[in-house]
Amino acid sequence: MVHAxxxxxxxxxxxxxxxxxxxxxxxxEVTTVIRREYGISQPAxxxxxxxxxxxxxxxxxxxxxxxxxxVDPTPLRxxxxxxxxxxxxxxxxxxxxxxxxxxxxxxxxxxxxxxxSDTDSDTDTDTDPDPPATPPAPTRDExx
Amino acid sequence: MVHAxxxxxxxxxxxxxxxxxxxxxxxxEVTTVIRREYGISQPAxxxxxxxxxxxxxxxxxxxxxxxxxxVDPTPLRxxxxxxxxxxxxxxxxxxxxxxxxxxxxxxxxxxxxxxxSDTDSDTDTDTDPDPPATPPAPTRDExx
DNA sequence: ATCGTTCATAAGAGTTGACTTATATAAGCG
DNA sequence: CGCTTATATAAGTCAACTCTTATGAACGAT
Lengths: 144, 144
Hints:
6 helices; 2 domains; three-stranded antiparallel beta sheet; mainly alpha; DNA-binding; homodimer
């Protein structure tokens, strides 16, 4: 299946997530806004909602004939975790410390840039299955 | 120009950024790793580096015939800011408060899910130019 | 039961994007 | 100066993505 970042690559989908961030919305309500803002058809919106469903960014709940969509934060969190290694670039040490505390992390050592002497390798296995150890496939698609 | 999330949509580019996160690397060094991991050609890697340059994710510095690439955190930070509105989904209130402090924000109100009565519209202007107020163009491309 | 909603799926077209091979530019070196 | 190394660009191919229109399925109301 597609990677979280692939899903977020589309501006319409990002916008839909923004809308859902404020709470559950029906497919129709989402469609109304998106249609107005991007001028695309109802099926187009429905297809985006499908991608969001399939990729775990949104959940659906039936309410009569309507479908109520809500954010499922799981993949967004993955993105957040991936981003973590770069936070050292824009957060100063004190901020980083506070964030550490805020997140209740158990890991030691901060993700500062240019950690040369640091051969940490892959201590944080929690993040991404991204780097394949060996040439995956000639077709270069996402490895699940 | 392309949106930050478009750039991050590619696994090879994400991997390159991961490599650069540990410090400056030459094009050749990046190529060696990526070639081994993804089995793609030197020009392919070079093209990805170009995208990273053009989109502001990486900076280059000449060292003789070599080009040394480094992370430019600016667009990553934009992504982080975009993500901010969803943090309420996975951080509890206390964590959120600590993060607020850590980030030194001046804005009030937290990005909690299901804030129904909240017709915030667009208070946080710092984030995204994403939602166009009106149907932008029939071709639905990224508005710069 | 029939008709209007609400929403999803199907099929097809156009565009974009990521590779490939071939080649160009520039530096390092004998 | 010629040759190798380091890197970028050019041109072309192929696949994937996102639309479109047409249609289907389920619910609600008359």
